[in-house]
Amino acid sequence: MKREIDIEQLVTAMKTVDEAGRLFEEALAVYEARGLQRNGDDFKVAGGSVQTLQGAEEMARGARKFLTDLALIVGYASAGFDERVAGRHAMSRTGFTAVSGGGARMARPLLEPTLRGLRLLQSVDLFDDAFREAVEEVARAERATYPDPSMFRITDATTVPAGSPSSRA
Predict the structure, then answer these.
(1) Is the pLDDT of residue 167 over 50?
(2) What's the per-residue H, E or C state across the chain?
(3) How far apart are CA 5 and CA 89, in angstroms?
(4) Which tens digit of pLDDT belongs to each residue from 61-73?
(5) 92-106 exposure pattern, b = at least 16 Cβ within 10 A, e = fewer
(6) Could you tell me if 59 and 99 are in contact, meaning their C-beta atoms sit under 8 angstroms apart?
(7) CB of 121 within 8 A of CB of 135?
(8) CA 73/CA 85 separation, integer angstroms
(9) pLDDT at site 168
(10) What is the pLDDT of residues 127-157, one digit of tens each?
(11) Which of 34, 36, 144, 166 has the CA that lies 20 to 30 A from 129?
């Protein structure tokens, strides 16, 4: 019987994701050593210290969680239970969102360990083109893009539609 899940491909992906996660953790440690803190209004600023720390942490944690997901797939597939993880295997090809979400928050230029981790992820055969493109977008972005500053704009009271609760006195 032909195995539907390529265990060798998954193990190779696991090793690469593990190394990328280690590099993301290294970058997070550098940011923390620089004294970046998670306080003040800086949370509103794309690329600010709060968002940069959050992004670096998301990437490191996301890689670790994804590694666990891959290990689960490998374990079941190795035991001959491919059908129990077929859906997870298909989803594993899409990578993990923490790369694009975390990367969008971070100050530029990205630290070298982060860039090396991103390049490693691009080399994984398991991942589909959409994930590789998302990783490339993070690596090439000239600035942080999240959060969008318009999320924090206060609208003028004159622009509140008539009849809405805030327009009633």
Answers:
(1) no
(2) CCCCCCHHHHHHHHHHHHHHHHHHHHHHHHHHHCCCCCCCHHHHCCCCHHHHHHHHHHHHHHHHHHHHHHHHHHHHHHCCCHHHCHHHHHHHCCCCCHHHHHHHHCCCCCCHHHHHHHHHHHCCCCCCHHHHHHHHHHHHCCCCCCCCHHHHCCCCHHHCCCCCHHHCC
(3) 7
(4) 999 999 999 999 9
(5) beebbebbbbbbbbb
(6) yes
(7) yes
(8) 6
(9) 47
(10) 999 999 999 999 999 999 988 766 655 555 5
(11) 144
- The residue written with tokens 């390049």 in the block is 119
Name the CA radius of gyration of the chain, rounded.
20
Q: Which amino acid is at 123?
A: S
Instruction: Find tokens 């972005």 and name the residue.
Output: 141
Identify the pLDDT of residue 46. 86
